[in-house]
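Bug #2210: token dump truncated for Thioesterase domain-containing protein?
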Amino acid sequence: MPSPAVWNVVLDAAPDADVVLATDFPVTGRNEGGFADLTPHLGLDCALWQTVAPVRVPTSGVDQDEYLAPWLTEVTRSGRTVRAILGYCAGSVFAGVLAERIAARQPTAPQVVVFDPELVDVPTVHLQFGRVVGNMTAVLTPAEVSELADAAQRLAARPGSTPAAFAAELYAVFEPVGSTALRRAGLDEDYAAELVALVGSFMTYLGVAAGLDPRPGWSRATVITSATPTSGLNRMRATAGAAPIGIADEVRFAVEHRDLLRTPEVAATVAGLLAAGSRAGR
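Reproduced locally. Full output below:
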């Protein structure tokens, strides 16, 4: 079994069974579907592990190889063959990179399926931070929400900021406000600190993703695309000056981004892709 601080076992299987990896940053209470929603409908005969992001305070200089190492080390230590790698939103960056690194370690390259993949830039970090704040309106006052939104807008407008530096600055603004709000809501100091650190880990996750190039892995990926214009390939194709993204195939669904991983038709399509990939790999 992998370390629970590195991989969350969504579906277990025999120790010698293959594994499907899923890259995402799930948190309790988010309004988006997750791999825990998708997995029961895939009909897998192997394990499925989901990433657990390292607990880190965001900086502009996180070592990417060091960040990825625990995930790769645990997979290697397990002795399992990675059958496929799934990625959601910004997690698709890690899916693409892990796919390339794992392909160099085993005879057959893992299949890659990504859901509304995102190349992380400053607007992506800004959007995701806004979602974090939006999910905390039960404990933040309207003035605190406004303070955080205004600070994020001001920092995002500064020329030359990198996504990693922007993420670190956002966390520096959020940390004292979030800590105060959570303690005011009655949480003890340790639990409040844990929740605030989770936001820091998410900002680090985005900052690291921004510095990675997933395009070699995406070049052989099947992309599952939602109808949300501000997500995934829809957003990238509508962004002026954005470089085209090469992929192997795309399947589009008339559902919102937040519902991709909990839509039965999506699950059926992905189950078919994974079954076909499993047969092809034998």
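Output looks complete on our side. The CA atoms of residues 85 and 252 lie 19 Å apart. Marking as cannot-reproduce; reopen if the truncation happens again.
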